[in-house]
Amino acid sequence: MKTPSLLRTREGVSYLVPFILVTCCFALWGFANDITNPMVKSFSKIFRMSVTQGSLVQVAFYGGYFCMALPAALFIKRFSYKQGILMGLGLYAIGALMFIPAARVGSYWPFLLAYFILTCGLSFLETSANPFILSMGEKENATRRLNLAQSFNPIGSLCGMWVAVNFIQGRMNPLSTAERATLDDASFEALKMSDLSVVVRPYATIGVVLVALFVLMLIVRIPARKTETSVSRAFGPSVRRLWANRAYRGGVAAQFFYVAAQITCWTFIIQYGTHVLMGEGIAEQAAEMQAQRLNMVAMVLFCCGRFVCTWLLKYVRPERLLSIFAALAAALLLVVICIGGRTGLYALVGVSAFMSLMFPTIYGLALKDVGPDTEIGSAGLIMAILGGSVIPPLQALIIDSGHVALSFIVPLICFLIILTYGICINRHSLHV
After folding, report:
1. How do residues 280-311 score in pLDDT, each as one tens digit?
2. What is the pLDDT of residues 160-181, one digit of tens each?
3. Cα-Cα-Cα-Cα dihedral of 109, 111, 113, 117, to 10°?
4. Residue 275 domain-assigned (yes or no)
5. Structure pTM?
6. Beta-carbon contacts of residue 374 (< 8 Å; ≥ 6 apart)
7. Are 183 and 191 in contact (CB under 8 A)?
8. Where in the sequence is the domain holding 77, given as residue range(s)?
9. How far apart are CA 257 and CA 418, in angstroms?
10. Least C-beta-crowded within 10 Å: which of 99, 141, 209, 253?
């Protein structure tokens, strides 16, 4: 029997062009995620705040995902995937361009508002793009197809990291956190405004790029694919059916803890790397730059892992591969906690190779049997990104108490929960 094509239906309809265009959006929200992660450390320095206060960037960022996912799903249900993508690009552009007035105000809170609006746009993009990719071909290949599209997400992430290193951290004033604390108010204010002008430029640039892409998406003909369900389909019954589906319900929980683990590992690798390298006598600014470069290595592993996993999924069931990767990620975090130092730092970098599979695979497994409730189900999985908002401040509190290596017990617990989900799915105990 011939294997179904990855991007073609049995009727011969090809989704190659819309797949390419929608996949560009995956790279764009990867860029936003990973230019933002280093900003926890950067804003902490710019505004002379604790790590816990700086982590409010992640609260605002992932809070936007949570708040807008359900409205996005209802919008898509009423209109189309294409309209959802256009709305997402528009809000993303507005949030990015809001960095310009936020920098002029010179206060932390306008930046948090800009992040919130930006991620409302990302929520629209993810709620639209993920199920759209799942629908572009035969059901047998849906999870593999989503892994392929998601493989371009870390390419955008790498670009975001590169911009963060070279155009934000590399151009900020090199004064350390301790040296900034000794400045008088006038000197600190001048330094703060100078650093904020550095921060705003990449966001303003991506805002202009997004406006151009919005116009391109508007004028290029893309199949305005309606969702599989009727617009009149009642919302309440959809929620009840989803809640009764144990595989879906467990998938939402697993996604919550996966995003939490991803964000904590990628955000606090900067703090951990800086801590380890400064312990070896390296100056703070140089240690931060080296830690960020290691973060980029982690993203390269993540990116390569996505392509490798797309191939592996031809031979290994998604739920089994998910279990194996979650166990290996947990083992590496035990090295971070128990051994520490350079060995722990390299182990933390290695975790990214095993995270690569998780988001699209959990997404595909959770939506596998939801049928006509896909759009509302997708919203629930995007709302689970709230884990990236709720959990990082818990780890930040442990870091602020002086236990940097021990703080990685937080993502360790998250991976153990994901491992449990994979095992349960593998044993078919969560299926309806």
Report:
1. 778 777 887 788 788 888 888 988 888 888 78
2. 888 887 888 778 887 877 788 7
3. -170
4. yes
5. 0.71
6. 131, 134, 135, 227, 228, 229, 367
7. yes
8. 16-223+238-426
9. 7
10. 209
